[in-house]
Write a structure and sequence with these properties.
The chain has nine helices and 23 strands. It is of the alpha+beta class.
């Protein structure tokens, strides 16, 4: 890998970018290369990711963003100055504009944090994951890298996805061409602008309704013919997608909505349209779901929001094309999340212990306030 420069992200951060240097057998920008974003958080995950990405080296144009760790981000909830209904703001500590322009702002009721205190902004490592996704989408939207010049699509991979021979469609060597072909056909025929690759939690029902996936490849009128027998599915509801292919104009819409939310301190009604949460699109990363729901809901049949589909294995029982494999656990400074959570009882007393918490202190205080007020609300309703 060769360092080729840096870019100013929309937060004012300096983000070093890397791509494979030209040379024999190396990946270089070109019209047939699929741009792919990665940001491995540990050496174990980096090795596992490259074990299969390397097989398709001639088909990828790789953009490796520096890892974003939870300790690189600070959360604030300024209830002292703004009262208990203050928004939660997240800032990048490595940014020269730190505490001037936030990464994310979440206004009350702060998503579903009072019902689920383990997901979205409640988990520090998931905030860091959302920051990586935002940086990748900013980079693609602004074509900040040679791999992205003229690119219609780009792939965003989290570091816990893997290609599984015999289950994933095709081979690791042909996978870049397969997803490029699938994204183009899905966009041309069904206006799909986000193709999900590594989905899970695709339950049989959603909110009391049957969650039947429609196989779009079986609709012969659209002439969908995917390589290696892969299937293109439209599924009503699922939560996770640790990898996806996104179309450029939609990446621009996502970044524009984020800019509008930040400009107006998370007050997006009448100012932006939710580009992320919609039928057939995953909420993942969880903070994105909460963040963008502060925009207006998209109109029915509108192309200004996410239009999603799932690229699935040829095997009818396998609904993904890349496996979400979390066996190599995410780590904070070499310590697993499980140990962080085990050690996180009570208030952290030292700087070292604070690093071992998978929740920001501001979120702890917010949750304490919500849990204190909940019994009082129930008591009032009982009266």
């Amino acid at each position: 890998l060769m360092r080729v420069g840096s870019m100013h992200s929309l937060q004012g951060d300096i983000v070093d970018l890397y791509y494979n240097a030209p040379g024999p057998g190396r990946n270089v920008p070109g019209p047939q290369r699929m741009p792919v974003f990665t940001s491995p958080s540990t050496s174990e995950r980096s090795k596992r990711l490259w074990n299969w990405l390397a097989d398709g080296l001639q088909g990828w144009c790789h953009i490796q963003l520096p890892p974003v760790h939870p300790e690189d981000i600070v959360a604030t909830w300024n209830d002292t100055r703004e009262g208990s209904q203050a928004p939660v703001r997240f800032y990048n500590l490595s940014s020269p504009a730190v505490l001037k322009k936030p990464l994310f702002v979440v206004q009350p009721p702060w998503g579903h944090i009072s019902q689920d205190d383990t997901s979205g902004m409640a988990a520090a490592h998931k905030v860091a994951c959302a920051a990586y996704h935002l940086q990748a989408l900013q980079c693609f939207a602004n074509r900040c890298h040679p791999c992205l010049h003229g690119a219609e699509f780009a792939t965003v991979l989290e570091d816990d996805v893997t290609f599984v021979p015999g289950s994933s469609p095709g081979s690791a060597a042909t996978f870049p061409q397969l997803i490029s072909d699938a994204a183009r056909q899905a966009h041309a025929n069904f206006n799909v602008n986000k193709l999900h690759l590594a989905v899970q939690h695709l339950s049989a029902s959603a909110r009391g309704q049957k969650n039947d996936c429609v196989d779009l490849t079986s609709r012969t009128a659209q002439h969908i013919r995917l390589l290696s027998g892969a299937r293109l599915l439209r599924c009503p509801k699922f939560t996770d997608s640790h990898a996806y292919v996104i179309e450029h104009s939609h990446a621009v819409r996502v970044v524009a909505a984020a800019d509008s939310l930040l400009k107006h301190d998370g007050n997006g009604l009448g100012r932006c349209t939710n580009p992320w949460n919609r039928y057939g699109c995953a909420d993942d990363p969880g903070l994105f779901g909460t963040f963008f729901k502060q925009c207006d809901k998209p109109l029915a049949n509108s192309s200004s929001s996410c239009v999603g589909a799932v690229l699935a294995s040829p095997h009818p029982s396998i609904m993904w094309s890349l496996l979400h494999n979390n066996s190599a656990k995410y780590k904070f400074h070499g310590v697993s999340i499980a140990k962080y959570r085990k050690d996180a009882g009570g208030q952290a007393r030292t700087h070292s212990n604070r690093k071992q918490r998978d929740r920001y202190e501001a979120i702890d205080r917010l949750l304490a306030m919500l849990h204190t007020k909940a019994p009082a609300r129930r008591a009032r309703h009982a009266v």
